Amino acid sequence: MSQQDSSLQAQNPISSAQNSVENAHNAVSHALSHPTAQTEAEALNAIEQANNALVQLNDQSDRPEVQQANEALDEEVNRLNNLQ
Fold first, then answer.
1. CA-to-CA distance for 66 and 36, rounded, in angstroms?
2. Alpha helices in 1-84 (DSSP H)
3. Which letter, b or e, does each residue of 4-43 get, where b requires 16 or more Cβ atoms within 10 Å of its Cβ?
4. Which of 25, 19, 13 is nearest to 76 (CA)?
5. Other C-beta atoms within 10 Å of 49: how many?
6. pLDDT for residue 9
7. Helices 37-55 and 64-83: crossing angle, nearest 10°?
8. 66 contacts 53 by C-beta, under 8 angstroms
9. In angstroms, what is the C-alpha Rg of the chain?
10. Is 55 exposed, middle or buried (0-12, 13-18, 19+ CB in 10 A)?
């Protein structure tokens, strides 16, 4: 098993959701710097995936890192809405 495989397996649902929010941030940043229908659609898709990852954590929603990820995702939604 490669080092990459083991690190992927070690990822927990919270860190996975945090990574999804980071991916949404990157997609929104890309859409803001290169505003096309495709980059906007990619940003919306990334936001939806991050939201789905956070919904899976509903039993852990009181944890500070989950609250912070939710706040960060809300910020990305607002950033994208400013483009549209």
1. 31
2. 3-10, 13-33, 37-55, 64-83
3. eeeeeeeeeebeebbebbebbbebbebbeeeeeeebbebb
4. 25
5. 16
6. 53
7. 160
8. no
9. 14
10. exposed
Which whole-number Å values give the CA distances from 41 to 30, 32, 52, 84, in the listed order?
11, 12, 16, 11
Q: Give the number of residues written for the chain.
A: 84
Kindly tell me the burial class for residue 60, based on how many C-beta atoms sit within 10 Å of its own C-beta (0-12, 13-18, 19 or more): middle
Q: Give Cα 22 to chain centroid, integer Å.
A: 5
- The single-letter code of the amino acid at 59 is D
Q: Tokens in use for 64?
A: 């500070």
pLDDT tens by residue, 24-71: 999 999 999 999 999 999 999 999 999 999 999 988 889 999 999 999
Predicted TM-score (pTM) of the model is 0.84
